[in-house]
Design a protein that fits this description.
Layout lengths: L10 H7 L7 E7 L3 H12 L4 E4 L4 H5 L25 H8 L9 H15 L3 E2 L3 E7 L2 E6 L4 E9 L21 E3 L13 E5 L3 H12 L3 E6 L18 H6 L10 H5 L2 H4 L4 H11 L16 E4 L3 E7 L2 E6 L4 E4 L1 E4 L15 H6 L2 E2 L2 E2 L12 E3 L5 H4 L9 H13 L7
Parallel strand pairs: 1-2, 1-6, 2-3, 6-17, 7-14, 8-9, 8-14, 9-10
Antiparallel strand pairs: 4-5, 5-6, 11-12, 12-13, 15-16
Helix pairs in contact: 2-5, 2-13
């Protein structure tokens, strides 16, 4: 199937075409239509590989990230990769008459991703994948409406949605009283309410700023003794050639580590224990340097952590490690995520058992191949094999090039 090239189609219009088409199969099925899935599609299309993308384009970014947020990554690291570099962020802004902004608003990035999808003009099926099982010819894919699809290979680009880290003490609270930053947050609905934000990373700190600006009474509770800020030594970025030796354009990690992280094919050869240290150091909890002025009037309780959480009527009472108590009308968890691919409901238990895992991450080799032939993982799930660049949009360039290079060696072209 070839969608019409008229770029006036909306995402929903384009996606509604696919379910009415008789589905037989393809060479490569891509599960997930976020930056990694769309980028992989662009690179596979350029090679003439028969593929299909499943999922709602940019859904997680549009619906599950805090409304009003700004991207942590610099503009140059916010491009979704395509092989001709024809669908850049600058190209999008020029085409719609948007003034370039830095930092980049989430709304602009979502619109950019949707524009990328329309320009790609490829097969997008908005139905969710219900299950994936191996069979004699590859993989049988069952869709949410019961439809069946056959694919020789599967690329999992499903993102971090299922991986929210929710401390056990909060698990029994009513959803109206506690939520995670990656569940979506209408900050204006908390105007006039007392909200406690747990965490010290970008999502936690920016959510706290947004809540405060929306009129909520906000307190941040963070385990670390003092908040950290990305780029805390800006002079290191203004040393000319020396800065280029210390930092890559992606700006992931501190001086030196940033340059290493930009070479995933080098990172993958580093022993796992050291690789883990590098990965954790590069993405340790910290906020962008444009956040401190927005948090000046937000109460901070650093060096503290929650030991218990109890529901008292329609409020939550927290007890901290120093014995002090807090009462709030809502708890927002900025506690990050833990990759565990068994949480992908579409991966059958039998398939998960066949995978070589590293504490929930798939062990991957060149081309993003897993231990199951024909099954690939890109994005955050690949970060333990190839390094923390794969947590960020900037990693789409490396991932898509490596993936398409491998799949292109034995491609089945479109008829």
């Amino acid at each position: 199937m070839n969608l019409q090239s008229n770029t006036s189609h909306s995402i929903s219009q384009a996606g509604d075409i696919a379910p009415r088409t008789k589905i037989a199969g393809c060479e490569v099925a891509i599960v997930g239509a976020g930056p990694y899935g769309l980028s992989a599609a662009a690179h596979l299309k350029a090679l003439g590989i028969d593929f299909r993308v499943f999922g709602k384009p940019m859904e997680f970014w549009a619906e599950k990230m805090p409304a009003g947020m700004l991207l942590r990554s610099p503009r140059v690291a916010s491009n979704i990769s395509d092989p001709a570099q024809a669908f850049t962020l600058d190209d999008f802004e020029d085409s719609v008459g948007l003034r370039p902004q830095a930092p980049l608003p989430l709304k602009t990035f979502v619109e950019y991703g949707q524009w990328f999808q329309r320009k790609l003009n490829a097969d997008i099926d908005r139905r969710e994948v219900a299950s994936i099982k191996r069979n004699d010819t590859g993989f049988e894919i069952t869709l949410e409406d019961g439809g069946l699809f056959q694919s020789r290979s599967v690329v999992v680009a499903a993102g971090i949605g299922p991986f929210q880290r929710i401390p056990q003490m909060f698990a029994s609270l009513q959803p109206s009283l506690v939520s995670h930053c990656y569940q979506g947050c209408d900050v204006h609905s908390f105007s006039g309410k007392r909200v406690i934000v747990i965490g010290a990373g970008q999502s936690a700190l920016e959510s706290a700023a947004l809540l405060h600006e929306a009129g909520a009474s906000v307190e941040i509770v963070a385990r670390i003794p003092a908040l950290r800020w990305i780029g805390g030594q800006p002079w290191l970025h203004h040393l000319g050639p020396i800065s280029s030796m210390l930092y890559s354009k992606h700006d992931v990690g501190p001086a030196g580590i940033s340059r290493l992280v930009a070479s995933p094919n080098v990172v993958k050869h580093i022993p796992l224990k050291l690789r883990d240290k590098i990965r954790k150091r590069a993405v340790r909890p910290a906020g962008s340097r444009w956040l401190p002025p927005r948090l000046e009037k937000v109460k901070l309780s650093t060096g503290r952590f929650v030991t218990s959480a109890s529901q008292i009527g329609q409020e939550v009472e927290l007890r901290l490690d120093d014995g002090s108590q807090r009462v709030a009308e809502h708890i927002l968890l900025g506690t990050g995520y833990s990759v565990d691919i068994s949480r992908y409901r579409f991966l059958s238990p039998e398939l998960v058992k066949q995978l070589d895992l590293m504490d929930g991450y798939p062990r991957l080799t060149t081309g993003f191949r897993s231990s199951v032939p024909g099954l690939y993982f890109i994005g955050a799930t690949a970060a333990r094999s190839f390094g923390p660049l794969l947590y960020f949009v900037a990693g789409t360039e490396f991932a898509s090039k490596e993936l398409s290079l491998h799949l292109g060696r034995n491609k089945v072209t479109r008829r």
